[in-house]
Design a protein that fits this description.
Strand content: 15-25%
Largest sheet: 4 strands, antiparallel
Shape: globular
Number of domains: 1
Number of helices: 5
Radius of gyration: 15 Å
Helix content: 25-40%
Length: about 140
């Protein structure tokens, strides 16, 4: 499945209609242009997909913001992941095994690799399932092989 099609299938419930992925990082964060030429950030480790720029001008400003860039590149975490897990092969990303929103730590013991489309599917489907839970609610994950 095409990445934008997968975004629309798994994250469309938030109102995004993805047309193009314009940037991606090693943790599968995506900057996505939608059908209205707005820009969204998909942040799978936090189970979030949020509008970050209303147009190209706002996106350009964001991409020059030092605080955003530090958060975007996640350089220290990527360096630790590369040393421990090795370089990423084509189509794979690092990820938090337990998402941060569910209490997962930003620590090498919680970092794995995954195919980008699997990460998009997992994060979008899980985010949809827990979207109405109050902060601090307990979540039990059942993993089937």
């Amino acid at each position: 499945m095409d990445v934008t099609e997968n975004i629309n299938t798994c994250w469309g419930w938030i109102g995004i209609e993805a047309v193009e992925v314009v940037e991606e990082n090693d943790f599968g964060n995506l900057l996505i242009r939608d059908s209205s030429s707005r820009f969204w950030r998909l942040c799978p480790e936090e189970l979030e997909c949020e509008l970050v720029a209303a147009d190209q001008q706002q996106l350009n400003k964001l991409l020059n913001d030092e605080e955003f860039l530090i958060d975007w590149y996640m350089s220290a975490l990527v360096e630790v992941a590369k040393k421990t897990l090795g370089s990423l092969s084509e189509g794979r990303k690092y990820c938090l095994a337990i998402p941060g929103r569910l209490g997962g730590e930003y620590d090498i013991s919680n970092i794995k690799t995954i195919a980008l489309n699997e990460l998009i599917s997992f994060s979008g489907n899980l985010a949809r399932q827990i979207k109405d839970l109050p902060p601090g609610a307990k979540v039990k994950l059942n993993v089937a092989k």
